[in-house]
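User: Sequence in, structure out. Go.
Assistant: Echoing your sequence, followed by the structure tokens.
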Amino acid sequence: MEMSAMAGTPGRPGSNCPACNAHSPPGAEKCGRCGTAIMDLRRDKELSPEASIPQTALNRPAFSAPPALGPSRADPTKGWQAPPPVRKSSVSILAGVFIVIGGIISSVVGLLYLMVSSMISQIGVGFGVATTVGVCGAIELAFGMLAIVGGIFAFMRKKFALAIVGAIFCMLSVGFIYSSLVLGMIGLILLVISRSDFD
């Protein structure tokens, strides 16, 4: 009878002895059964370092590896994946072809002008005529060469500014029956459309 009275019962005021688990009335400093100081044991248990640390924290390793730095992985099971390549259109290549053709036409016309200038000077028709034709041929040849260089850059999708300059010189060179002017204008329009294709 005495043991059942001393045993802790749920719902009764007071506390249980930490040593023998016997029930003690509220405010009791010692256990009525074993004489253990209840307040001292309770205070020691509350002040112990393990009591304030969660069990999950004690099971966690002291040091853990930091998260890996670098490019994100779409699928960790497949390893690192390079971003998909950006597809470039063929408009810039077509523009380069037009500009190069216009530059070639202008260069050929410029060479013909220089040949005619040489023939005129040999015949002796007039120094002024030969000089004028020669200067026009030299300008035509220079503009045609610059157009060819710009067309090559457009074909390679590099140096957008130089490709634009090449298209402008192709237009200025006029060419045979305005052929270079038309080809340069088409190439310039295509270059503007394909601006995003250049590096």
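User: And one key feature?
Assistant: The longest helix spans residues 91-123.
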